Amino acid sequence: MSKMQPINLRSFKQKAKHKKSGMRRFLSRLERESPKGLDKKIAILEKEVWQETDCLTCANCCKTMTPTFTDKDMKRISAHFNMTVTEFQKKWLKRERGGDRDWLNKVEPCQFLNLKDNKCSIYEIRPADCAGFPHLSKKFKDFVHIHKQNVEYCPATYKLVEKMMTSMP
Predict the structure, then answer these.
(1) Tens digit of each residue's pLDDT (9 = 90 or more) over 7-52
(2) What angle do CA 19, 25, 28 make, to 5 degrees?
């Protein structure tokens, strides 16, 4: 078992760029032909991944992606700042173009990320999307499209898929 190592983002981004298409093909194949016990196997591998991954040395998700803010998230977070939901939206959020027109951060990195220590300033009340990220423990088939995207952004997702590829040829 590997020991937790700080994440070198530059190195990770190079590896991810080089391997992402192969990883995405692998995930697509698993999506089409899921072997029996896949979610159980992923649960075992996920435990290993979290023993090796220190998110506070990375925070790439908060630096390069935005969560979707639900109505519930916006009510909770705006109340924390003694703002109305509308004031909160005007100050920090924008509507997604097309599609579902979700509420997203206006800026990257996330306005709530402290870049000195990679900690979230609203961690206890963060959006549900952030709390569930990177969605590794969810049912594989329901989140494979997310994993295909995240192999390029999240070292934990990358490690999980890498482990899957070596243990499930």
Answers:
(1) 999 999 999 999 999 999 999 999 999 889 999 999 999 999 999 9
(2) 140
